[in-house]
Amino acid sequence: MKKTILLSILLITLTTSASYAQKYALIDMEYILGKIPSFENSNKQLESLSKQWQDEIDKSAKEVEAMYKKYQADLVFLAGEEKTKRENEIVSKENEINKLRDSYFGSQGELFKRREAFMKPIQDNIYEAVKEIAAADGYQVVLDRSSASSIIFASPSIDISDQVLTLLGY
User: Fold this and answer.
1) Which residue has the higher pLDDT, 18 or 153?
2) Helices (H), 20-168
3) Is pTM, for the whole model, over 0.70?
4) Taking the CB of residue 114, how many other CB atoms lie within 10 A of it?
5) Which of 24, 28, 37 is nearest to 164 (CA)?
6) What is the mean pLDDT of the chain?
7) What b/e string do you get for 52-72 counting C-beta neighbours within 10 Å, with b at 16 or more?
8) Is residue 160 exposed (0-12), middle (13-18) or buried (19+ Cβ within 10 Å)?
């Protein structure tokens, strides 16, 4: 009798826990983004802007370098006040370059803002597609394989990246 009750409880526990099993899926965001032409175009535009801004900064840096070399060459001939004036000009120009670099490439710089402006619509579309697939197929968790470094192995059968691309029309 005790064995029957124990066996019944065990069977009920197993069937109950099986019904709570979660379904997982994976996406590979790098793969998905690589297949979206607007992402590639955005990256090319950002690279072009970045190069243009870097060239501008490099040009200014060469000007400062030339100013400093001229200052060193003239140092013997400069009086105290003129020497201080030239030093201040060099320091001022270096500060301008640093501000310019920060305005272009800083954490809240123009490159960051433009990348965010380009990426947000693409990421929102991907998120909506993933959400739709997850709701339709009953996935409780969808992980990004490209950013989840703790995933050592995952079966390709749970990768829904191609489904996301199909839903997005690519």
Assistant:
1) 153
2) 29-34, 37-74, 80-105, 110-137, 161-168
3) no
4) 15
5) 28
6) 87
7) ebeeebeebeeebeeeeeeee
8) buried
Distance of CA 151 to the CA centre of its chain: 19
pLDDT, position 10: 53
With vertex at residue 17, the alpha carbon angle to CA 14 and CA 20, rounded to the nearest 5 degrees, is 150
Cα 165 to Cα 40, 68, 83, 113, 121, distances in angstroms? 15, 55, 64, 26, 15
Say which residue, 6 or 132, is predicted with more confidence: 132
Instruction: Give the whole-angstrom CA distance, residue 160 versus residue 139.
Output: 11
Rounded to whole angstroms, the Cα distance separating 116 from 87 reads 39
Chain segment 60-84, per-residue pLDDT in tens? 999 999 999 999 999 888 888 999 9
DSSP class of residue 156 equals G
Distance CA 30, CA 146 (A): 6
Please report, in angstroms and rounded to a whole number, the separation of the first and last CA atoms in the chain: 62
Nearest to 39 by CA among 132, 147, 121, 106: 121
